[in-house]
Design a protein that fits this description.
two-stranded antiparallel ribbon, about 10% strand, alpha/beta, 4-stranded parallel beta sheet, 9 helices, globular
Length: about 250
């Protein structure tokens, strides 16, 4: 048995228990963007749908949909890694794209992310899947959709989350500090035009490849495995006199 890839015990199915969220832990810019969104017609519609599903006893993940914003403030964000929506299995989603709590089986896409880190930077393959350490260094691990129902992938897509997460991406793109955007797969790459349209004078780097999913990680035109994105990101940050990420 490979250490860390299987549960020692059934995962705790931590779920979203209340809505709307507590915004007091967010930095002022994130909090303002989220408040404006929740006050909009789209945000109110999303809140109503979430509240209705929770009242019916529906299991919704993750327990903290805004955790990426809690761990990475706008002023700290130096790298953005975009995902699509949260994991929909029990105990998997922890509010950060691609990340799972320690002790949970490492999903295939995250396993390929760790494999690329090993191949590109020679780092040992982690036995645990939480990326909280990255988030605390300024890696914004943002999904386009921030909630999902148990066992139903993309079940909250087009509920309105994308309006908020596009606003968050624009805020990072307009910031004064150098930023690296890692766009893996066509869903993430669709945000490239949004980033280019609003980016100011600060240097930025957009890195594109296939998604790290086993279905696409080795496929052309730009395989994820062998993309060297983590090394390229650190090279860029170093050239901009920024602290590199300890991947």
């Amino acid at each position: 048995m490979q250490q860390g890839l299987l549960f020692d015990a059934p995962p705790v199915a931590r779920r979203l228990s209340q809505w709307p969220p507590d915004l007091t832990r967010l930095d002022p810019v994130w909090a303002l963007l989220v408040r404006d969104f929740l006050a909009s017609a789209v945000g109110q519609s999303l809140s109503d749908r979430l509240s209705e599903r929770l009242a019916l006893g529906t299991v919704v993940y993750p327990p903290e949909p805004l955790r990426a914003l809690t761990l990475t403030s706008l002023s700290q964000a130096r790298v953005v890694i975009l995902g699509q929506d949260p994991y929909h299995g029990p105990g998997q989603a922890e509010g950060l794209s691609f990340s799972v709590p320690d002790g949970v089986r490492i999903p295939p896409s995250l396993r390929n992310i760790f494999k690329e880190l090993h191949q590109s930077l020679g780092l040992p393959v982690p036995s645990q899947g939480s990326l909280v350490r990255w988030a605390r260094q300024g890696v914004l691990l943002l999904n386009a959709c921030l909630t999902v129902e148990e066992g139903q992938a993309a079940s909250h897509a087009d509920w309105g989350w994308e309006v908020l997460t596009d606003a968050l991406i624009r805020a990072v793109a307009q910031s004064a500090q150098p930023v690296v955007f890692m766009l893996w797969g066509t869903h993430a790459q669709a945000k490239k035009s949004l980033i280019d349209a609003v980016r100011g004078d600060a240097p930025y780097l957009i890195l594109e490849s296939n998604h790290p999913s086993p279905l696409s990680a080795m496929r052309p035109p730009v395989p994820f495995l062998g993309c060297h994105h983590f090394a390229l990101a650190n090279d860029f940050l170093m050239q901009c006199d920024q602290k590199m990420i300890d991947w």
